[in-house]
Amino acid sequence: MATYTPFSDKAVLVEFGKRIASSRLNCNWTQADLANKAGVSKSTVEHIEKGQSTQLLNMVKILRALGLLNQFLGAFPEQGPSPMELLAASRKQAASKRKRASKPRATNKAETVTYPAASSGTPTANIAAEPKAAWVWGEDK
């Protein structure tokens, strides 16, 4: 759906060029000064101020040199997450909540096993459980 605007594309470029020129003059800079500070050629500044088309990168450089880049970016506010993204995030968060606790798992096969000591009243001893050796054919004969 097209939106009605009172200005043509060319008229917008001309108005933009006039405002760039006005900002440059408020800084008391020549076109060469602005071009030097922005890192573009003088002819690029001339084209912009005449309302001619130029690369967006050159516009960004000129707006930065004039101290107007934040105002330009302010015309396009950052968009937050859409309602569908918020819903998906809340569902994911609800699904990832822990439902119960669990005991820590052993990291290797040789776990430490605690056996009660003999009735001597001595404390319990930690004995490492040895893994069973692999069965070899004919070994049991």
Notes on the structure:
The chain is mainly α and 141 residues long. The protein has 6 helices and 2 strands. The protein has a two-stranded antiparallel sheet with strand order 1-2. The longest helix has 18 residues, at 9-26. The protein is elongated, with a radius of gyration of 37 Å. The model has no long low-confidence stretch (mean pLDDT 79).
Which descriptors apply to this entry?
141 residues, mainly alpha, 6 helices, single chain, elongated, two-stranded antiparallel sheet
List strands and helices in order, with pairings.
Blueprint: H1 9-26, H2 31-38, H3 42-50, H4 56-66, H5 69-74, H6 83-96, E1 112-115, E2 125-128
Antiparallel strand pairs: 1-2
Helix pairs in contact: 1-3, 2-3, 2-4
Task: Report a brief summary of the structure.
With 141 residues, the protein is mostly helical. The protein is built from 6 helices and 2 strands, in the order ααααααββ.
Strand elements, count: 2
Average pLDDT reading: 79
Low-confidence stretches: none
Query: Pairing-aware structural class of the strands and helices?
Result: mainly alpha
Name the assembly state.
Answer: single chain
Strand order of the largest sheet: 1-2
For the record, give the distance between the C-alpha atoms at the N and C termini, rounded to a whole number: 90 Å
Percent strand equals: 5-15%
Report the biggest beta sheet as strand number plus sense, adding barrel if it closes: 2 strands, antiparallel
Helical percentage: 40-55%
Shape, principal axes of CA atoms = elongated
Treating each run of at least 4 consecutive H or I residues as one helix, how many helices?
A: 6
Order of helices and strands: HHHHHHEE
Rg over CA atoms, rounded to whole Å, is: 37 Å
